[in-house]
Amino acid sequence: MILDTNALSAYADEDPALFPVVESRRLFLPAIVLGEYLSGIAISRNRAKYQAWLELFIADCTVLDITQETSRHYAILVLELRKIGKPIPANDLWIAALCRQHSLPLLSRDHHFDVVPALRRVIW
């Protein structure tokens, strides 16, 4: 399961509703989500706590990088969403492309992912 930034934040904050959803699942973290999260904790009062937590968390998941194959999925997705008149934010396009590339569901509270063809969004 791929984590969106809001899911990663909920995980870091130990949201009890999240744990049954991710229990016993292999977790994947897009490099884009990692960048969004790092930029958020850089301005946090609890920066040291979240940085320490993130180092431990990353050891237990797989970070997904953008590749040439990801770029192909991204381009197709941009055209599909443009055709139906349902654009989503650029970073989320990359996350959706990774979901489609790896055939993995996305754990997110962002409803705009629901318009992405062939992407299954999981909520908590």
Write up this protein.
The protein is mainly alpha-helical and 124 residues long. It has helices spanning 5-12, 19-22, 31-41, 47-59, 68-83, 90-102, and strands at 2-3, 28-30, 62-64, 106-107, 121-122. The strands form 2 sheets. Strands 1-4-5 form a 3-stranded parallel β-sheet. It has a two-stranded parallel sheet with strand order 2-3. Helix 5 crosses helix 6. The longest helix has 16 residues, at 68-83. The two termini are 13 Å apart. The mean pLDDT is 97.
Secondary-structure blueprint:
Blueprint: E1 2-3, H1 5-12, H2 19-22, E2 28-30, H3 31-41, H4 47-59, E3 62-64, H5 68-83, H6 90-102, E4 106-107, E5 121-122
Parallel strand pairs: 1-4, 2-3, 4-5
CATH class division: Alpha Beta
SSE pattern, N- to C-terminal: EHHEHHEHHEE
Number of helices: 6
Contiguous uncertain segments of 5+ residues: none
Average pLDDT = 97
What would you give as the CATH superfamily? 5'-nuclease
Helical proportion, percent range: 40-55%
Could you say what the CATH topology is called?
Rossmann fold
Largest sheet: 3 strands, parallel
Shape: globular
Query: Structural class, judged by helices and strands?
Result: mainly alpha
Number of domains: 1
Distance between the termini: 13 Å
Total strands: 5
What is the topology, as strand order, of the major beta sheet? 1-4-5
Portion of residues in beta strands equals 5-15%
List keywords for this structure.
single chain; 124 residues; Rossmann fold; two-stranded parallel ribbon; 52% helix; 10% strand; globular
